[in-house]
Amino acid sequence: MPSISILLILVVAATAAATGCIHDCCSNNTHAAGAYVNGTVHMKDSPWTPFDAPMTEGFNLTNGEDWSFEGVSADGQSGMGFTFSRGTVAGHALAQRMFLAVVWPNGTRFIESTFADVSTIQACKYATKGTWYNGTSGMNWTFEATNDYSRTLVKVESATVRGTFTLDAISPAIYPNGLVYPHPRGDNWFAPYLYWVENVPVGVAEANLTIRGTPFILEGIGGRERNWNSFAWAEISTSWDMVRGKVGPYTLMAWRFESKIDGQTYFSSVLMKEKDVIFRTLAQHVSTTEPYGSFNLDNNGTVRLSSDPSAATSLPESKHTGYVLEMVIPATEKRWRFEVDYTKCVYWFAAGSDGRLGGFVGAIKGGLVGGRQYSGRASGTTMEKN
Ligand SMILES: *[C@@H]1O[C@H](CO)[C@@H](O)[C@H](O)[C@H]1NC(C)=O
Ligand SMILES: *[C@@H]1O[C@H](CO)[C@@H](O)[C@H](O)[C@H]1NC(C)=O
Ligand SMILES: *[C@@H]1O[C@H](CO)[C@@H](O)[C@H](O)[C@H]1NC(C)=O
Ligand SMILES: *[C@@H]1O[C@H](CO)[C@@H](O)[C@H](O)[C@H]1NC(C)=O
Ligand SMILES: *[C@@H]1O[C@H](CO)[C@@H](O)[C@H](O)[C@H]1NC(C)=O
Ligand SMILES: *[C@@H]1O[C@H](CO)[C@@H](O)[C@H](O)[C@H]1NC(C)=O
Ligand SMILES: *[C@@H]1O[C@H](CO)[C@@H](O)[C@H](O)[C@H]1NC(C)=O
Ligand SMILES: *[C@@H]1O[C@H](CO)[C@@H](O)[C@H](O)[C@H]1NC(C)=O
Question: 174 is in which domain, residue-wise?
Answer without folding.
Answer: 25-385
